[in-house]
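Q: Sequence in, structure out?
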Amino acid sequence: MTQQNPSLARELSLLLALATLWGSSYTFIKIGVETIPPVTLIAARTLIAGGILLAILRYRGVRLPRDRATWGRFFVQAWLNSVVPFTLIAWAEQSVDAGLAVILNSATPIFTFLLTVLITRHEQVSLRKLFGVISGLTGICLVIGIEALAGLGESLTAQIAIILATICYAGAAIFSKNFKGLDPAVPAAGSLISGAVILLPVSLVVDRPWELDPSAASVLALLALSAFSTALAFAIYFRLVQTLGSVGTTSQAYLRVPIGVAIGMVFLGETLSPTAWIGFVCVILGVAAMTIPQRRAAALPARGG
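A: Exactly. Output:
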């Protein structure tokens, strides 16, 4: 036990860092899409972040795999973890507050659990986890429920887009197990480069980026989003998938919610409606019930899953 505790403490510290990096990404995206179209923002995000990780790998003397099978997995991971969810969230944040986006997107552990039960079946069903699913889904319904009843199509569609992005992240967390044994920065770089290859042609055709006139704030937000909330965050993410497992890693959503909401309030002046606050609490309870280990199992996550 004494040998595992320092390791567990290190992994949990990385989990907190990941939650902070991803919690801040919603504010960076909100600022970025003010003058940069979503597809171009995400194409640049994946290109810059992938380039940073590739440079770090070369500095460390680590080479990317060259076989088709591994690159095929990189492209699948890119669709699940960057191309689709990044773009959906960026598009949605044109009409949805960053704080609301982080609440809706925090349900990743819930969907990860549901997918593992329905598809891979390596997660044990318990009353505690069932409570987590019910509480989390109730919170999501509370957050978007008023919009649905009011028939506000644009905002509701944007919120549903964030939910779809959340499901993609859940699939990505499960699929990430296919990269076990690789240096954590390798699948991070490979999937981001693959994402850039997919998105750049779309950006050139749809947005004609050479005609854009982005603000300095949007450019700085893009650079911070790429370097910190993507390159650094992805390297940490793939490491934690190997040490904490897919559901354990997605537990950063439990920490990400208050961090992301607080950043949106402080820097963007956002507020939440009373219904959204209730939904916020339900989602937090749901994710916590599913991801915080019981006392007797507290040291288990460091062994991986």
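The radius of gyration is 19 Å.
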